[in-house]
């Protein structure tokens, strides 16, 4: 069992999106249905593991990161998928992940 925190799309109170870089999105299958409980990993530009969260019941996930190049990788019983993102500055950056076997 993973100790990663459950996620949702609502940002916590006090988050200043003018100063913080927020990566969020939804994990879904090829038909567009949300994938609850997927493990979503944040990998740095060299592929090194940085953090992991568990997608919510609606497939939502969220990370706080620095500007730069990141890979968001979802792992689930439905399949796996990833997307590379490159936020250039603070703000909310939305990136969905589609998983497939």
From TrEMBL:
InterPro entries: CarboxyPept-like_regulatory, DUF1416. Residues 82-101 are annotated as: Disordered. Keywords: Isopeptide bond, Ubl conjugation. Residues 91-101 have a biased composition (Basic and acidic residues). The lineage of its organism: Bacteria, Bacillati, Actinomycetota, Actinomycetes, Mycobacteriales. It comes from the Bacteria. It holds the Pfam family DUF1416. This is DUF1416 domain-containing protein. Transmembrane segments: none annotated.
């Amino acid at each position: 069992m993973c100790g990663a925190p459950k996620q949702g799309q609502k940002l916590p109170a006090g988050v200043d999106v003018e100063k913080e870089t927020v990566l969020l999105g939804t994990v879904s299958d090829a038909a567009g249905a949300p994938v609850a409980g997927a493990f979503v990993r944040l990998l740095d530009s060299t592929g090194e593991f940085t953090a992991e969260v568990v997608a919510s019941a609606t497939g939502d996930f969220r990370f706080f990161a620095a500007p730069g190049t990141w890979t968001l990788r979802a792992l689930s019983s439905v399949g796996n998928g990833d997307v590379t993102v490159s936020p250039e500055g603070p703000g909310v950056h939305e990136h969905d992940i589609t998983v497939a076997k």
